[in-house]
User: Fold these one by one.
Assistant:
Number 1:
Amino acid sequence: MLTSVPRGTKDILPDTIHQWLYLEEKIRELCAKYGFNEIRTPLFEHTELFLRGIGETTDVVEKEMYTFEDRGGRSITLRPENTASAVRAYLQNKLYADNNLTKLFYIGSMFRYDKPQAGRYREFHQFGVEAIGEQNPLMDAEVISLGADFLKELGLTDVILKINSVGCPKCRPVYREKLQAFFKDKFEHLCKDCQSRFDRNPLRILDCKNPTCKELSVGVPEITDCLCDECADHFEHLQHHLKAIGVDFVLDPRLVRGLDYYTKTAFEFKYTPLGAQSAVLGGGRYDGLIEECGGNPTPAVGFATGLERVLLALETQQLLPKNKEKCTVFIVAMGDKAKEPAFKLLHELRSKNIAALMDYAGRSMKAQMKQANKHNAQYAIILGEDEIDKQIATVRNMNDSEQMEIPFDTLIDKIIFEVNK
RNA sequence: GUGGCUAUGGUGAAGCGGUCAACACGGCGGAUUGUGGCUCCGUUAUUGCGUGGGUUCGAUCCCCACUAGUCACCCCA
């Protein structure tokens, strides 16, 4: 116990941290390009926010939340996603006052008590965006294209974008009834899961993988045929906009999102080699959430992407960046007499912004040279007793093995000169 | 949460119910006197083979539980 992480969590070690920095760098560049601004919200919120925001009957809320009581008796929950928090922050800080449209993005840990699997963790990291205050389908298109751009920027191919419309509070209940009517006389033949879905969320029956359920759902009315005029129009426009900017997509009338707050647009980027965890990026419109959280009715769209999954996907296509250590100078100091002058030199080099290392363990010269090599040092500065006596250092270029003797008083300048040339 | 599979050193892994737990990589040291990357040599799990029980004269290899990972389902990022 003492030496293992809790189930479903992971250390990100120095040998892979560059992958995360790489992703974050790409994300920040991209968001700057699209005009989304970073927000950081607390890792935990009042439980009620998620209950209201995500929906009490969703799996996330029913069985995946890390909820506890703090010492003041408040019910606190580690955030299972960031949209509700972003909306809360938007309302609390009255971000709507600055602008009619607020475009936010976030990167951070989320927590869900799931059974862990590759690509599914109890603490995982998401990058997501939220555009709050715009109902035009152009906004949906922008958000989707940002998601597509993100994956494309990373070089990832063979990703499929699926889109759907899940309707609004006007037309979804109508569709729901149609569905229930359709499955009513088939109820007994549905699998157990679907029987419970029948009341709670009949839309979910549509993407059940049970063969019998699949058969039974042949000929079912599609939601896209039952949308109200407004939703149908919105969906229609979205498709045009996506085509106009060359974002490929497939219509998937059975695409359903797991969180209650979605309205109209739902979309998902799938990368099938990841198996059961192939949903790499998903999102949609949530026009009712802001009001649900106590704000004025405000339309919004967003998405979230699982960074672990993105990394897994990149790995399958060998798109992960290499870890390049850049050490400019390695000081090889030999003998006690040389250690302190070497240490002073080390300090001076660093004060001139030169990445420098040295060995403290008193290893042999050969061993120190190996260290220099392992750290990819461009130069080795050799300081032995001879050099100290003569006040001269031997500077070895590790790439071409050329060496030169440099007097101490010009050493730093010479190194700076060499490094910059 | 349900079901299947797996669990050997820093890593990838071989192995048998019973004399030293292969091999490769990595790490460390060395190959005549102060010099790396290639090559070669040595060394690197010292009552040990996820943890705890059990079967057995004896278990890393058999059984059970737990834990963890993994796959599918559920769901989702």
Number 2:
Amino acid sequence: MANLEKAFEALGDPTRLAIFQRIATRPHSVGEIAGHLPVSRPAVSQHLRVLKDAGLVSDVKDGTRRVYEVRPEGIEALRRYFDQVWERNLKAFQAAADKISREKGSSDDRSSGNKAGKKVH
Amino acid sequence: MANLEKAFEALGDPTRLAIFQRIATRPHSVGEIAGHLPVSRPAVSQHLRVLKDAGLVSDVKDGTRRVYEVRPEGIEALRRYFDQVWERNLKAFQAAADKISREKGSSDDRSSGNKAGKKVH
DNA sequence: CACTAACGTAAGTAATGGCTAACCTAGAAA
DNA sequence: TTTCTAGGTTAGCCATTACTTACGTTAGTG
């Protein structure tokens, strides 16, 4: 999955992640995005190109503007990846997973769920 | 969610992603990982530090060795993030989502699901 | 037509970050 | 204790890359 690698590389940059998160709320034009960021518009264009090459967003021409929106296939690929990682580790996670889903559990965590008393950092 | 940013930054590097993917199959020691990669062991150590700071892996001391394993909380955070992005865009995705879940649908895609005939790149 | 708005692209620069080499530390075995 | 094994840490080099400025392009408007 070379595409996964590109997706993570794309989201790896803080500015690009910020751009993606903004688009994730609703479609945005390039100018709109640049207006809310401390970088120039061309910089945003370059970031959008990377996000697009990674399959995370797509653009729609609207007159002279260009509206970018989230691309469902890209999100699905990432969703599936983490689901897969999760399930592959399901047995090992078991205890921790319970702890998470219990959310705000009683403050006394008995035995803390790690095996053989080895210290986990 | 500054932690999300660190997680994506961590997985953004190809070598680090390879390391993470290896750990995701089963826990590995540092030497094991370095043995399968074209980089030195110190480099692997540095990458593991980044992955650990991002909350994606944890390490367990085993004698003089150090075994790294996936950290469930980190995976959960990422899973939840993409679930959230997906659901927030659910309405917009609708058509595309159907198309994906149908997988290998009939080769004739009628109307291709885009609105108003604007070209999507 | 000319003018403007909204973008993308190219080139050049500056800074981030990944890598190796050398060194240091902590256990286990002799 | 000495020796060996397995890893973490630091310093510095070098390649990547994110950014800005300047220019080119396309579509709408007068």
